[in-house]
Design goal:
mainly beta, about 110 residues, 6-stranded mixed sheet, 4-stranded antiparallel sheet, 10 strands
């Protein structure tokens, strides 16, 4: 079973940027990023198909970009113009029940 490892989270000021990475131990197909803020349900942030087609939650459209490097079995989430409400643990998943351990993103001044 493929394993997923996220990295790249941290503390950033409002308006700043971060790039998250999700490295897989094997071949990846359609992938997604989710996030979960304290006291809230996990929500879908973005998806990307094997061919590179993408979809985004309305709350991140125009600010976040999901991408992939199939040669490296890695998916990325570029996050720009970050807001305090983007604070959450971010998870990647292969949409077949495999999840990473999550990486914390905190947006605060």
């Amino acid at each position: 079973q493929v394993q997923l490892v996220e990295s790249g989270g941290g503390l950033v000021q409002p308006g700043g940027s971060l790039r998250l990475s999700c490295a897989a131990s094997g071949t990846i197909y359609k992938m997604a990023w989710y996030r979960q803020a304290p006291g809230k349900q996990r929500e879908l942030v973005a998806t990307i198909t094997s061919g590179g087609s993408t979809n985004y939650a309305d709350s991140v459209k125009g600010r976040f970009t999901i991408s992939r490097d199939n040669a490296k079995n890695t998916v990325y989430l570029q996050m720009n113009s970050l807001k305090p409400e983007d604070t959450a643990v971010y998870y990647c998943t292969n949409l077949f029940g495999v999840w990473g351990q999550g990486t914390q993103v905190t947006v605060s001044s």
